[in-house]
Design brief:
The chain is built from three helices and four strands. The protein has helices at about 5-45, 65-85, 95-110, and strands spanning about 50-55, 55-60, 115-120, 120-125. A two-stranded antiparallel ribbon has the order 1-2. A two-stranded antiparallel sheet has the order 3-4. The protein is elongated, with a radius of gyration of 39 Å.
Length: about 130
């Protein structure tokens, strides 16, 4: 005896339904596990003095800062940033100074008269026509 198309259709609908139920069950299970892990992490951080809520995070410290300590710490931070942003060469070599003076002297002595030289890699010569 052969299965009719109604038997095949009911079997497929049972398979699809079980697939959907299994997927929903899996999502709910993973969500509960993640929520439990987050709650456990929140409790362990709270034991260390860090409180996390929907309004933000707060850290419990035993030290109090007054305005003067806050301003001093801010100024130290600004000074560190400024020192880090400035370029301080560790050794001032003559080659860097000579390179700077040579390039600026080439630009300043560009009078276009009888001598030839290079400016920005382009050969410069006098403008008179040679006959």
């Amino acid at each position: 005896m052969m299965a009719s198309w109604i038997d095949v259709l009911s079997f497929l609908s049972l398979q699809v339904t079980s697939l959907f139920v299994g997927t929903i069950f899996g999502v709910v299970f993973v969500t509960k596990r993640l929520s439990a892990a987050a709650q456990h992490t929140k409790e362990s951080l709270q034991h260390k003095g860090i409180s996390i809520s929907d309004k933000g995070m707060s850290i419990k410290t035993s030290k109090r800062f007054d305005r003067e300590n806050y301003v001093d710490a801010t100024q130290r931070g600004v000074i560190k940033v400024l020192d880090a942003s400035n370029f301080h060469p560790s050794n001032t070599s003559d080659s860097q100074q000579n390179f700077k003076s040579k390039s600026s002297s080439n630009l300043l002595s560009a009078d276009g008269a009888a001598h030839s030289g290079k400016i920005f890699g382009i050969r410069r010569s006098h403008s008179g026509a040679s006959k």
